[in-house]
Structure formats: structure tokens, C-alpha cells
Design goal:
- The radius of gyration is 22 Å and the shape is elongated.
- The chain has 18 helices and no strands.
- The chain is mainly alpha-helical and about 240 residues long.
- The termini are far apart.
- Helix 5 packs parallel to helix 8, helix 14 (about 160-170) packs antiparallel against helix 15 (about 175-190) and helix 16 (about 195-205) runs antiparallel to helix 17 (about 210-220).
């Protein structure tokens, strides 16, 4: 174990440090716990956030218990990251190492703060990605964020971004995506082209087919912009026009 301590002390790469801990834990998890102060002293949270996530992924592969000890360090890094996509990718990396570690990390965040993060995110598509990442580790934590997502969708003008946000959330879970249907369905109904409506529904079905079908069921032909679109919505609801993949 002394060799691992020396290697960690002299190593500059957070990813390589993670690999050293993984190897040490494979030899002896109990002895590998002695490395935690050395890892913290290397200030891995000061590096690139994606590399920090990869470091914790490697550690989690070797020992979930050791990785959990480092959650406070990684949490600080994520909370200070201004790029939500990079912060999300960090969590995805950790999830690939251990779902349990990623879940405990996400549960350590204040749900009110996460909600503010989504509310302050200008890009609704990025907000959908953040929701998906949070749902990877904690469905309950993600569910608390639905009101914030509804607010983002209601104020978004770009229908393509709305649909992409819904698709990402649908991947995370059918139930939360269904809760959003009343918020965005009128934006789909208001499209002048039935071809465009079909494209939107196809994108949503890539996330979850049931969500796409329930969106179709919710559409009101009377809200269509023109006769052709009204006819197309009627055919969609009747099942004679197929779009779900």
C-alpha cells in the first residue's frame, strides 16, 4: 500500500489517481481506505469536472464505500460548475461506475437548489438533460423538479427545443414526461404543418413510445391551424397515420 501512497502523492492526473485507488481496492479494500486522505490532499476537485467524474468512476469500480467517502469533495466541484452539461456529464461518469454512489451523491444535493439551477438555465434543452442526469441516480429528486420544468416549457418559444427537452425527460421516465403533456401539447397543435407535428411526435417516441402515444391522444383537432392539419390530427388519433417508432 505504501507504493500506492507514493504514486498518488506524485501523480498530477486525477484519472490516474482514480486508477491507482481502483487497483489498491482490488488488493485490499480495507487497506485502500488509508488512501482517502492522500486523495483529498491532491485536491482532485480543483481539476476539470469531467476528469473528476472519471476519477470517482474508477474509484467506485474498485470500492463503492471509498467512493462514497469522496462525495463531499465532488459535490463541491459540481455545485461550483457553471456549465450544467459538464456537471451532468460528471454525474453520468460516476453513474457508470456505481449507480449507488451516483444516487447518494444526488441525494446529498438540496432539492430547492437543484430546482433553482433548472429555473436559472436559459436553455430548456439543457434543463431537460440536467433532469435526465438527476433521474439516473434519484427518481424522487428528479420528480421534485417537474414544476420547474413546466415553467421552462411554458415560457419557451422554440418548439423544437421543447420537444427535445420532453424527449430527454421521457428517456428518464415515462411518468414525469406525461405530467408535461398538458403544458406542451398546445404548442404541437398550433403547428401549421402536419408533417412537422409528425416529426415532433417521432422525436418524443425516441424517448418513450407511450409518452408519444399519450401526446397524440391529448391532441384536439379543433385547435388545428388549418383543415389539412386538422385532418392529419384526426388520422393520428385514429391510428391511420403512423408516426411512432
Amino acid at each position: 500500500m505504501e507504493n500506492f501512497k507514493d504514486w498518488i502523492e506524485s501523480e498530477k492526473s486525477s484519472i490516474q489517481i482514480g486508477e491507482y485507488v481502483r487497483l489498491a481496492a482490488a488488493e485490499s479494500e480495507e487497506s485502500a481506505r488509508e488512501l482517502i486522505p492522500y486523495i483529498e490532499s491532491k485536491r482532485i476537485s480543483k481539476g476539470d469536472i469531467i476528469r473528476v467524474g472519471e476519477c470517482l468512476r474508477l474509484i467506485a469500480l474498485g470500492s463503492g464505500k471509498i467512493a462514497e467517502k469522496l462525495i463531499p469533495v465532488v459535490k463541491i466541484k459540481i455545485e461550483s460548475e457553471k456549465d450544467t452539461v459538464k456537471a451532468g456529464e460528471c454525474i453520468v461518469r460516476i453513474f457508470k461506475g456505481s449507480r449507488e454512489v451516483a444516487g447518494k451523491l444526488l441525494e446529498s444535493f438540496d432539492s430547492g437548489k437543484l430546482r433553482k439551477e433548472i429555473e436559472s438555465e436559459n436553455d430548456v434543452e439543457r434543463a431537460g438533460f440536467l433532469f435526465r442526469v438527476i433521474a439516473l441516480g434519484s427518481k424522487d429528486a428528479a420528480g421534485d423538479l417537474i414544476p420547474a420544468i413546466k415553467g421552462k416549457l411554458a415560457s419557451e418559444e422554440n418548439v423544437e427545443k421543447i420537444v427535445e427537452c420532453v424527449r430527454l425527460i421521457a428517456i428518464a421516465g415515462e411518468k414525469p414526461a406525461e405530467e408535461l403533456i398538458p403544458v406542451f401539447k398546445n404548442r404541437i397543435e398550433s403547428e401549421e404543418s402536419i408533417g412537422r407535428i409528425c416529426w415532433y411526435l417521432r422525436r418524443i417516441s425516441e424517448g418513450n413510445r407511450n409518452v408519444a402515444q399519450k401526446t397524440i391522444d391529448s391532441l384536439d383537432p379543433e385547435n388545428a391551424k388549418n383543415a389539412d392539419t386538422k385532418r392529419g390530427i384526426i388520422e393520428l388519433k385514429a391510428g391511420t397515420l403512423k408516426v411512432i417508432i
